[in-house]
Design a protein that fits this description.
The chain is α+β, with helices and mostly antiparallel strands. The protein is built from two helices and three strands. It is flat, with a radius of gyration of 18 Å.
Length: 81
């Protein structure tokens, strides 16, 4: 039983260090912060927008927050340093 527990912690430690998981945690942090601290009647959070560029390729925007104060574009990155 203890070997399964140690193995599980080891696998979870590896998963949480991947760039994919760090990105998901960063986006979750923004989602939670905007839902807790921004008034839903004044701010609209639009998530994961894909735009097509002139050359046919696409780009993705993580968050666009629209309010009477302006339009805020948030690109979530997880970088070290």
């Amino acid at each position: 039983m203890i070997f399964w527990l140690i193995g599980s912690f080891f696998v979870l430690g590896i998963i949480f260090r991947t760039p994919w998981m760090k990105g998901k945690i960063g986006e979750l942090t923004i989602n939670v912060a905007t839902s807790l601290y921004l008034n839903k009647e004044e701010y609209t959070n639009i998530k994961n927008i894909t735009l097509q560029l002139n050359d046919g390729s696409t780009t993705q925007i993580d968050h666009i927050i629209v309010s009477r104060y302006g339009v805020f574009v948030i690109e979530t990155k997880n970088m070290k340093g």
